[in-house]
Amino acid sequence: xxxxxxxxxxxxxxxxxxxxxxxxxxxxxxxxxxxxxxxxxxxxxxxxxxxxxxxxxxxxxxxxxxxxxxxxxxxxxxxxxxxxxxxxxxxxxxxxxxxxxxxxxxxxxxxxxxxxxxxxxxxxxxxxxxxxxxxxxxxxxxxxxxxxxxxxxxxxxxxxxxxxxxxxxxxxxxxxxxxxxxxxxxxxxxxxxxxxxxxxxxxxxxxxxxxxxxxxxxxxxxxxxxxxxxxxxxxxxxxxxxxxxxxxxxxxxxxxxxxxxxxxxxxxxxxxxxxxxxxxxxxxxxxxxxxxxxxxxxxxxxxxxxxxxxxxxxxxxxxxxxxxxxxxxxxxxxxxxxxxxxxxxxxxxxxxxxxxxxxxxxxxxxxxxxxxxxxxxxxxxxxxxxxxxxxx
Length: 392
Ligand SMILES: NC(=O)c1ccc[n+]([C@@H]2O[C@H](COP(=O)([O-])OP(=O)(O)OC[C@H]3O[C@@H](n4cnc5c(N)ncnc54)[C@H](O)[C@@H]3O)[C@@H](O)[C@H]2O)c1
Ligand SMILES: [Zn+2]
Ligand SMILES: [Zn+2]
Known about the structure:
Number of strands: 15
CATH architecture of the largest domain: Alpha-Beta Complex
Oligomer: single chain
CATH topology of the largest domain: Quinone Oxidoreductase, Chain A, domain 1
CATH superfamily of the largest domain: Medium-chain alcohol dehydrogenases, catalytic domain
Shape: globular
Number of helices: 13
CATH class of the largest domain: Alpha Beta
Bound molecules: nicotinamide-adenine-dinucleotide, zinc ion
Largest sheet: 7 strands, mixed
Order of helices and strands: EEEHEEHEEHEHEHEHEHHHEHEHHEHE
Structural class: alpha/beta
Distance between the termini: 10 Å
Number of domains: 2
Strand content: 15-25%
């Protein structure tokens, strides 16, 4: 089959690789019909290069048709239409039973001390072959796949793999009080969808980014927007819109690809070019994050407010403004999205009309063969690229 493979920093190639097969009785094989390109893939594309292996198959936002199931997968049959959550979880361990499948105790990656294994997501998360491919082996298929109806186009459901539950969890964790204001820092696919979900719930939303078309998309969904390029301080701009106090809740939907911190960006580039044996430990302990989005979130939230971090961070030594966080009495919630925890809450918004506008959420539909170009234009934010969905 054809698959998008990682070959080196900023070097992805579409290659012919062996078709996946059932290995465990709990596996399923899916023929992929649509598969997304995510901001998280950009971390692997460059920043997390030390944790990647040449030839790793990328991608974690697939949907498609069940081809074959192992003997222990009793809920699925060939021909079912399914969306595959980005995390791999058993559904029956202590964590899964508590709605925390990203912490699944059956699939945790003990070698790296991390949570549940993820599709297409580096050694840190189990180096499981990913979903930007023609076929996918789905481990723990007795639990993971979300069955969706035949009929509507793939775009209606494909974001259940990641974007929708991730944005949903961000809004849930932000816990904006009635009548309150939510600021969303970063308006990539995740921030954009968080804006839509919050606006759908009647929450007042302020969106922040620096890319004109991303600001325009958020504005068209009812958000007030702050253009990073026009302000000296995001915190001041948000306070100006909120009676001087700041937003009741802030979502950080930026993560470690933030613009605006040249020094750590330089460190990150250096680490990315070291031999893996040196760079991986350095990356984990020295901390090479770019924190501009998170610092803005902490500044823009009001005293006693909540910061919901959904952007992905790694590293350990970045200074956090503890004095401000403590003095402002902040609540912080964060983590990978627990996809199946939210799927049933989201599905009615996909089957009863399209209030979140998922049908035309993708800006680019591209063949899998165009992946090298797609990664580059998504990273550089060229050609109006906000969300790419591949058709294998
Ligand atoms: N927690 C999870 O389960 C989960 C799931 C999916 C994605 N993510 C993470 O969410 C983040 C966003 O993903 P995405 O797909 O929307 O990617 P993205 O890279 O397209 O979005 C990031 C956005 O932040 C903007 N930005 C950069 N620096 C900024 C700054 N200083 N202030 C304001 N905006 C700034 C960029 O212009 C961009 O629009 C990534 O870190 C991704 O890894 C987390
Ligand atoms: Zn994703
Ligand atoms: Zn589990």
